[in-house]
Amino acid sequence: MFTFLLDLATEKGRSIHAYAAAAKAAYAQALKEPDHAAAFYYLATSAENFVDRHERQPLSSEEFEQTFMAFQADIHALEKTAEAPEGTRLSVLNEIVASRIERTG
User: Fold this and answer.
1) What pLDDT sits at residue 89?
2) What residue ranges do the domains of the chain occupy?
3) How far apart are CA 54 and CA 66, in angstroms?
4) 25 contacts 8 by C-beta, under 8 angstroms
5) Interval 66-76: pLDDT, tens
6) Could you tell me the CA-to-CA distances from 90 to 11, 35, 38, 47, 84 in Å, in that order?
């Protein structure tokens, strides 16, 4: 359900433009999948924030890889619970968001 965003980002070279495309796709999917809209919104804003932060700034390959790995981990965690009851999905999403806030300070 969510891994298509990783495929999209990889196909587009995991670049700034790839994250912009992933954000756009996640926003669109949020409208199509209202039961998962919050998760798609989170992924869209995560990708969009990456673009906003790094569009005009150099980024080390290490930092770029760390960002992709974190995005990938979030997607896989959401994917694992995509068919779980709503309360479980919300709990996982809350954990992911809290973790991201801790990572980015």
Assistant:
1) 95
2) 4-104
3) 14
4) yes
5) 989 999 999 99
6) 29, 11, 9, 20, 10
The answer to whether 103 and 63 have CB atoms below 8 angstroms apart is no
Read off the tokens for 66: 């760390």
In one-letter notation, the amino acid at residue 35 is D
Contact between residue 55 and residue 18 where contact means Cβ atoms under 8 Å apart = no
Whole-number Å distance between alpha carbons of 67 and 18: 13
Examine the pLDDT at 19 and tell me if it is beyond 90.
Answer: yes
- Return the structure tokens found at 87: 């309360």
* Among candidate residues 17, 24, 10, the one with its CA nearest the CA of residue 68: 10
pTM, two decimals, is 0.91
Sign of CA dihedral 68, 69, 72, 73: negative
pLDDT digits (tens, 9 = 90+) for 29-48: 999 999 999 999 999 999 99
Task: State the number of CA atoms in the 13 A half-sphere of 28 facing the CB.
Answer: 8
